[in-house]
Amino acid sequence: MLRASLLCVLALLAGGCARRAPPPAPPPPPNYSAALPEGRAALVEVDPATLPPLRLSPEERSALQAGIRHSLAFLERASSAERFPRELPIDRALVQRTLRDLAALLATASDEELERALRTRYRAFASVGWDGSGTVLFSGYYTPILAASWTRDERYRYPVYKRPPQLVGGGVHEQAQWRRADGTLVPCPPYQELEASGALAGLELLWFADPWEAYTVRVQGSAKVRLRDGQVIDIGYAGTTGHPYVAIGPLLVAEGKLPAEQLTAEGLRQYFRAHPDELPRYAARNPRGVFFTVTSGGPYGSLGQPVTAEVTIATDKQLFPPAAPVLVQTTAIAADGRAVPYVGLRLDQDTGGAMRAPGRADLYYGVGDAAGLRAGRQWHEGRMWYLVLRP
User: Which CATH class is domain 43-141+300-389?
Assistant: First the structure.
């Protein structure tokens, strides 16, 4: 007995015979959509010497030059000054000067000269990210080319709508109002409620054959459409219900309908094509919806200018300076589908319903199915820095 007691004492001293402490609880999952804490700026200045190395191909330089022209066209309008968050040390005139200087560098400077200029003549402002430490989730988006019809028939049965005359406001990050018959204004009802009530009847702009395609168009806010006669047209943003965007993919994962590893654009497409009866129920849980008009020369971003493949980035324009150059470091999807390290120079020319926090950004991949496959797989953390000339 004495021997057993002695052994237990020794074991206790060594950590045995004692109850093990429960393992620490796992950390909560990242909340990339976490709002910026009140009183905190979305950007913090950092030493440009800490920026990652940048190398640009001739094709990337050419695309950036095209994007810079679109950014400068937006900034030519005096009203663009009002789009800059007042708390930022970056304004319209500074971004104009920066873009003109950057265009000259891209035309004449080698990669080494460009990098030296960015580190010596420019200031760098990093996004604080979702966690205050700079972590940003980069998703991807693209412009699909989808089959649609001006008229409804047995094949084309799923509409997108023109802007209702009762809609008041409805900017990208603006709670829209709805004018009732007596002239009073109330918050705009959710999209599905408007559709179910008949308030949108007669406003159908186009009809799609695939309900999932119609849903993704009204979420993304733009599309290229191939009509029955082969003509391809653009449709673009004409307002929104103004409600916060609710992503239905995480709802499927949370309810055990879709494995987390299949939470991609293609995974969602396959799921709802296999379970079409479930789409209306999930779509109704997203109260946000976009209304459309026919455009030309697009697709267009939220600045009213065309977006450029591999150049445009979408962010929350209530936090970040529009049209400005952004250095992005993340993992991106190559043309062959591989996930590869990426450092690129982009321009902040767009926004979106899910881009409502310093921890979210969207990379624009371009037009068509190949771009869509890449965009659907883009879901990687990284960092981003806004670059502006020194005074």
Answer: mainly beta
Q: How far apart are CA 58 and CA 61, in angstroms?
A: 5
Residue 110, classified by CB atoms within 10 Å of its CB into exposed (0-12), middle (13-18) or buried (19+), is exposed
| Tokens of residue 81, six digits | 């000054």
Instruction: Write phi, then psi, for 74 (nearest 5 degrees).
Output: -65, -45
The closest alpha carbon to 359, from 67, 29, 26, belongs to 29
- Minimal CA–CA distance to 328: which of 302, 355, 360? 360
What class does CATH assign to 143-295? mainly beta
Domain extent listing, the chain = 43-141+300-389, 143-295
At 283, which helix (H) or strand (E)?
A: helix 279-283
What's the pLDDT at 86? 87
Predicted structure pTM score: 0.75
Distance CA 183, CA 178 (A): 9
Residues 6 or more apart in contact with residue 260 via CB below 8 angstroms:
253
Ranges of the chain whose pLDDT falls below 50: 1-18
